[in-house]
Write a structure and sequence with these properties.
The structure is a homodimer of 339-residue chains. Helices cover 43% and strands 16% of the residues of chain A. With 339 residues, the first copy, chain A, is α/β, with parallel strands linked by helices. In chain A, the strands form 2 sheets. A 6-stranded parallel β-sheet of chain A has the order 2-1-3-4-5-11, sandwiched between helices. In chain A, strands 7-6-8-9-10-12 form a 6-stranded mixed β-sheet, sandwiched between helices. Chain A binds a DNA duplex (16 and 16 nucleotides) through helix 2 and helix 4. Chains A, B: Keywords: DNA-binding, Transcription, Transcription regulation. Chains A, B: It comes from Chitinophaga lutea.
Chain lengths: 339, 339
DNA sequence: TTGTAAGCGTTATCAC
DNA sequence: GTGATAACGCTTACAA
């Protein structure tokens, strides 16, 4: 890196002290308008660009948020990232993004890196296998606030923003029922995830509210791999009374379930109605789409998480907070056009 | 930010000087094994984490790459990001990512931010409207190397990594011809982009190689909006001799063209064969897919760009380089299964 | 092999 | 309203 212009250079040229220059640049009210003008003019002329690394160091603040998500290829997260960035940018922060790729060890390494870089706060969607929240507790203890999004951390004790999964599960199931389905399966998320259970409970509640008996064999937990979904579909279709409607945990499960039908049981493709979480743009291009999707506002989740994080960062450094926010943003049921 | 443990703390406890501690931590050979051990042990015990902000400041290097892309929601870029990160991580660098959202003003602001943060190098895929490369030239002048990916910068003079667009255009067109198509249209990219022209030239070359006359009216430039694609399709299908095969500039254009047929001219859906650039995972889930896709290895493009960038960063700071790399990574034609 | 000391660019605290 | 000076945490000649 070539050494750029510093406030020292400006001070020298203007025969002022560096502190005056610094203050002028930071609009300190104790500086006269004239001086301020001259400094800024010269700064402009010399292409002065403040060295953030030096500021961060001096201020013990990096104006940086760490964002940890499982996978950027999942558009759910891509939207969330944008939400976080929107708020961050607005407040003069920037975001460093890392992907855990659903790997717990990687996740921990990322946390380390973020500590080294002294991020001012962290937003994380933990991996589907994350059980031990210790690394994140440590952040809290270091005074670095943490907000979780999407996936609920084990053991609570973290600020947390997600969709209203129960309500969404209810709406998705209820929609199928209102469409006349009576045998409704649920391809639920991994057993280990609280989100899975929330959606599952919504599903059960909708059945109950509509007087439809719950059948255990119609619920299959999948592991978020295509093979897992195929297996679950196979089992469902072998039942004596197979489902005519399926509510899925997530976009990609719907896609894979449809793909399974297309390749293995094309005759059923028109017969089984789907609803599911997630309303990604790609659904628009499918021939066989779900009847309806539960739109999770992941952008807004990102925004809200960032807002909470900023709130935490501005609180004065008491020890760990005693109370944690848990926000559930409403979902929206979107009915898809079918040609 | 709570103040963490510093090497000063370690030095005090061990009755050593900070420089000794620093050297021990950095495996300086001049430090005795014993001392080194003791330092590291205590560092571990105290949970010492080096303050990168301080190091960056001191070293005038941030070990940070700036990555500027139009849109993270486009999986093409998502893969490229992963490629860049893979190489960066391997070398102990991290990446700060920003999206221009195809907006030139935003792009310039991002460049400013990157300068403020003193990134050590920049990888950028310019917006589709970027004409003035001046902001990036300025980076070069400041000694911050720049590598472009995907979209070729106007006026050359930058290191540049992309797919072999000509070859890909040729292969996609040739494939349709070999399938028996004689009337092959090309939904080309924006006129302003060199990439568009390279693919277009490949298309023309394939026609010529196969003795098929080129028909100007079969080529439509689209602006990468859905509406643009619809319009182009409309025009193509109104021709006296409409195309039976269409080669598209990009995934999303294929998707939108198919969507157009689905909604407007479903009877043609099975009649028109598509090939196009991009082989995103989502294609897998489509019923009507292109016959074949030109797989661009965007992950590898990211990797290669990062490698070139590191090479540049390690060159000693002569003024701007006199010669620029221009790498075209081979594409792969992938034939899709059709049920 | 270890210690001393200077300095990276900026801001903050005081004194003037 | 302005300036001198110390300090942030770390690395690195150079001295011992």
């Amino acid at each position: 890196m070539k050494k750029g212009v510093t406030i020292k250079d400006i001070a020298k040229k203007l025969h002022m002290s560096v502190s005056t220059v610094s203050k002028a640049l930071n609009n300190d009210p104790s500086i006269s308008a004239l001086t301020s003008e001259r400094v800024k003019a010269l700064a402009q002329e010399l292409n002065y660009v403040p060295n953030e690394a030096a500021r961060h160091f001096k201020l013990s603040r990096t104006f940086t948020l760490g964002l940890i998500i499982p996978d950027i290829l999942d558009q759910y997260y891509a939207f969330a990232i944008n939400g976080v960035e929107a708020v961050a940018e607005q407040r003069g922060y920037h975001v460093i993004l890392s992907q855990s790729h659903e790997d717990v060890a990687t996740e921990q390494k990322i946390v380390d890196v973020m500590v080294r870089h002294r991020v001012d706060g962290v937003i994380v969607s933990v991996t589907k296998n994350t059980v031990d929240m210790q690394p994140f507790r440590k952040l809290l203890q270091m005074g670095i606030p943490v907000v979780c999004i999407g996936r609920e951390p084990k053991g609570g004790m973290f600020d947390f923003v997600t969709s209203d999964n129960h309500e969404g599960g209810f709406a998705a199931t209820d929609f199928l029922i209102k469409k006349g389905h009576r045998h409704i399966a649920h391809l639920m998320g991994p057993e280990g995830m609280r989100t899975s259970h929330a959606r599952y409970e919504g599903y059960k509640a909708a059945l109950e509210a509509n007087g439809i008996p719950f059948r255990e064999e119609l619920v299959k937990a999948v592991d978020l791999t295509p093979e897992g979904t195929y297996r679950a579909m196979e089992e469902l279709l072998q039942l004596a009374e197979p489902p005519t409607g399926i509510f899925t945990f997530k976009n990609y499960i719907t896609l894979e379930a449809l793909h399974y039908l297309k390749t293995q049981r094309p005759e059923l493709l028109e017969k089984i109605g789907f609803t599911g979480f997630g309303n990604l743009p790609i659904l628009h291009y499918l021939d066989h789409k779900p009847l309806a999707s539960i739109e999770e506002s992941s952008f807004e989740i990102g925004e809200e998480a960032a807002r909470i994080l900023f709130e935490r960062m501005s609180e004065k450094d008491e020890e760990e907070p005693t109370q944690y926010h848990s926000r559930q943003l409403p979902c929206r049921l979107v009915v898809h056009d079918h040609l």
